[in-house]
Design a protein that fits this description.
The chain is mostly helical. The chain has a domain of 32 residues. The chain is 64% helix and 0% strand. It is elongated.
């Protein structure tokens, strides 16, 4: 696998991890507010890269668990 392919796979995985973290937070928030579960899980796919603010908010942190 070339470096280009590896870097593309890494960025793709990173994008999906951010999207999954964002969706998990939105689902938990909807549950706390009291929305029905089927409504909380109904969301539309947004094409493109996440915004810079979303990336900063939902990206990995420097904190570690020990």
């Amino acid at each position: 696998m070339s470096i280009y392919d590896r870097s593309r796979a890494l960025m793709n995985r990173h994008h999906h991890l951010i999207k999954n973290r964002q969706q998990s937070l939105l689902t938990r928030t909807a549950a706390e507010v009291g929305l029905p579960e089927d409504v909380a899980r109904n969301w539309n796919h947004i094409q493109g890269k996440p915004s810079h603010h979303s990336t900063v908010a939902y990206d990995r942190s420097g904190a570690t668990m020990s």
